[in-house]
Amino acid sequence: MLLDTSSLYYRAYFGVPESVRAPDGTPVNAVRGLLDFIARLVTDHRPSGLVACLDTDWRPAWRVRLIPSYKAHRVAGGCLLYTS
């Protein structure tokens, strides 16, 4: 199973309430949502292997040069996205 972890992480951040926090108060909603999603995929599909790819450059300059409108509608993640 090959996962685009960046997109799943982004979805999890907005899909899990911000109230999900670690004992020290740090928001962990994106991490929790991502792990829940991966667990569900593994449970449902029983893959023989799993590769999770993560690209933190959500709007790479080389791609924007080719397609200026690439992800232009997205706002850069707030600090909580990166904290989570």
UniProtKB/TrEMBL annotation:
The keyword Hydrolase applies. Gene3D superfamilies: 5'-nuclease (3.40.50.1010). SUPFAM superfamilies: PIN domain-like. The keyword Lipid metabolism does not apply. Residues 1-75 form the 5'-3' exonuclease alpha-helical arch N-terminal domain. Pfam families: 5_3_exonuc_N (PF02739). GO terms for molecular function: DNA binding; endonuclease activity; hydrolase activity, acting on ester bonds. Keywords: Endonuclease, Hydrolase, Nuclease. This is Flap endonuclease. It comes from Streptomyces calidiresistens. The lineage of its organism: Bacteria, Bacillati, Actinomycetota, Actinomycetes, Kitasatosporales.
